[in-house]
Specification:
This protein is α+β, with helices and mostly antiparallel strands. The protein has 2 helices and 10 strands; from the N terminus they run βαββββββαβββ. It has helices spanning about 20-35, 95-105, and strands at about 15-20, 35-40, 45-50, 55-60, 65-70, 70-75, 85-90, 110-115, 120-125, 130-135.
Length: about 140
């Protein structure tokens, strides 16, 4: 079978985390990262991240059933265990982020200096998801 031309991809728009308490996650992410609430209800929320990305929170198990929307149906989805998200930061802001994490009593679990020159800080959210702050130079595409 022959493949045709590959259509373009512009990036990732949404990332989802599955959490025990949506309101607790909203407080953590809006307080620490100053993300904006785009939509919120008891079992689901959407936060604006960096002015172009969307971070979704679903109460664990909530999205196991299809969601009927005015324009169609969102298929079921869910995840278990600690998940991972990496947030892009400017290298010059790394010390300020270290201070901010400390001020919010968020322990830095690990630091990595990457071969391409990037640096990462790793820490956990209230649901034990692994969060990472990455400077450019971690990947060949970033």
């Amino acid at each position: 079978m022959k493949d045709g031309p590959v259509p373009g991809l512009n990036g990732i728009v949404e990332t989802a985390l599955y959490v025990e308490d949506v309101n607790r996650s909203i407080r953590f992410y809006t307080d620490l990262f100053r993300m904006t609430v785009l939509y919120a209800e008891e079992e689901f929320c959407a936060l604006g991240a960096g002015g172009k990305d969307v971070l979704l929170f679903f109460h664990k198990g909530y999205a196991l059933k299809p969601s009927v929307m005015p324009g169609g149906v969102i298929p079921p989805h869910d995840a278990a265990g600690a998940q991972h998200i990496g947030f892009s930061i400017n290298r010059s802001e790394l010390p300020a982020w270290e201070m901010r994490l400390n001020e919010h009593n968020v322990a830095i679990e690990s630091r990595v200096s990457w071969p391409l020159g990037g640096e990462s800080l790793y820490f956990r959210d209230p649901d034990n998801h692994l969060l990472e702050l990455l400077t450019p130079g971690v990947w060949t595409v970033y």
